Amino acid sequence: MAEELFARVRRLVELAVAEGRRAVAEPAHGDGFSLRRTRFPVAAELTTTLTTEADRRARDAFGRLSDADPDAYAWAWLNTAVHLAATERTLIQSTWHSPARPREDRHLHWPQSYGLLDGKAAVRRHAGARYADLAARFYPDAAGDDLDLGIDLMSWFFLFDDLFGGPEGEDPTRARALVESVAQVLRRPTAPSDVPVVRAFSDLWRRSCDGMSPQWRRSTQRSTGAPISPGTSPRRYTGSATSCPRSRNICCCAGRTIGVYPTVDLAERIGRFEVPEHVYADNVPKAIRHVAAEVDTIHNDLCSVEKEEARGEIHNLLLILEKWRRCTRAEAVEEMCRMIRSRTERFLVLEAAVPALCDSLRLTEAQRVSVRRFADSLLAVMRGDYDWAEQSGRYANENIPREQETAQ
Q1: Nearest to 253 by CA among 317, 305, 309, 340
Q2: Looking at 8-75, which runs of residues are DSSP E strands?
Q3: Which of 62, 179, 353, 385 yields a CA-CA distance of 20 to 30 A from 394?
Q4: Residue 185 DSSP SS3
Q5: What's residue 2's pLDDT?
Q6: What SS3 state is found at 280?
Q7: What are phi and psi of 313, to 5 degrees?
Q8: Can you tell me the distance from the alpha carbon of 76 to that of 56, in angstroms, rounded to the nearest whole number?
């Protein structure tokens, strides 16, 4: 109930930015009472103040309507937005706790148990990155062991990625050997001699398969294998190049290598639902999944450009645009923002086609629910990545020169 109400408050805050104060005056009538009834009096008061200020129209000495005080409305909006952000974060953190152990402790305990965090500095940086927060945003309905699995997957993918900021990323032979060892986990049990990152991934794969159908396992095995196959690992290689990859190619490759597809697949496992196999064969689910992956890929490159530039990496879309279009950094950033907007609009068009797809495939009600949850999980991944990056310490300037030390 609280999540639904605060989603309406967020819509109100976003509406104020997109359409202005007149659009805010009407939609929230009644929300203040509902928020008070659910014991959110501060949110109720702020929402009421915002809509009141939006609807306020002053009159001059002759009784004619004049512009209202813009400062009062601006302060009302700012107060509501800040309170909303703080409350949403608190609601997310409330899902991290179980009677046995806080989820934030689990965030550090699991990678430490496999030797993936070496030293206090690495632990501090890992904690500051807030991967538990990212998992809670990606899987907002998860709790307990299911949320633990999501948190551990987030930790593993970023720690695995960081390995290529060290010697593995500078030596293609070592990189291929490492990713082949991890990819083998999908086909065989681990051996005692395997390195920690391989044994940790084996634990993730075992837990991910729990309770899922053979069809889901085969499909996820294919999509999970892509970001950790030798064919895609060169995205992380450092050094100079006489030719730089084109933006279209980097989006396609990075969409696989940064782990977006496995992240989406895990939403089915964590939510305990499965999209029918024949639905995935249609172009709409393929396209909507691909668009969501590209949005996260482009946004990831925006956030990580300083870190990757400091490490001498060239496979970042912003750096590619600067080089091939001979444009300034500000122009490259604007182009990437345009790319995100256009893909988000494309996503919404595809999402609107989902009900018709369900009709054409004559899905049962249970199957329709699974497809709807699949689309919702993509939205959560797109929005969750954006919100998390605003708060995470992963891309903080003080972490840039030492990021490669995290997962040695």
Answers
A1: 317
A2: 58-59, 65-66
A3: 179
A4: helix
A5: 52
A6: helix
A7: -80, 150
A8: 12
Compute the average pLDDT of residues 113-121. 91
* Residues 101-110 pLDDT 10s: 445 666 899 9
Run of H or E including 91? helix 70-93
For the chain, what is the radius of gyration of the CA atoms? Answer: 23
Task: Provide the pairing of β-strand 65-66 with 58-59.
Answer: antiparallel
* pLDDT grade for 76, boundaries at 50, 70 and 90: confident
> How far from chain centre, in Å, is Cα 258?
11
Helices (H) and strands (E) in the chain, counts: 21, 2
Residue 71 and residue 79 in contact, taking contact as beta carbons nearer than 8 Å: no
For the chain, give the number of residues: 408
Distance CA 89, CA 344 (A): 24
Pair of tokens at residue 407: 């997962």
Q: Which letter does DSSP use for residue 403 in this model?
A: G
**pLDDT (tens digit, 9 = 90+) per residue, 230-262?**
444 444 444 444 444 554 554 444 444 456 788
Q: What is the CATH number of domain 97-405?
A: 1.10.600.10
Alpha helices in 94-130 (DSSP H): 103-113, 120-129
